[in-house]
Amino acid sequence: MEHTPGPWKIVHYFSDSDDAWFYSHTIEDSYENFICHTSMTSFWGGNDFNEEANARLIAQSPTMFDYCVRQAYDGDPDARSIVEAVTGDNYCEGFFRPREQNPT
Fold it and tell me: Which of 5, 7, 80, 102 has the most CB atoms less than 10 A away?
């Protein structure tokens, strides 16, 4: 399984009317291809702090994934678990150093 290569970036869109505003954080790759978006619509002057934070987290996903792969290759079991959760169990087969077996 392959993901869209990074870097990813956030593009902000804003529109408003008399009674509401709409703000969208769109995640794009370096070729401006759409990845996903988070958005917030407010009718009473709320905020979109969660959506902006989510957009920043999503935009950094390729970098974080690459870091986890490197850490997993160096034997970090937590990083390996993350890589396996993201890619599926077979991704790590034959790629990483063998896991240490727990003594019984």
Answer: 80
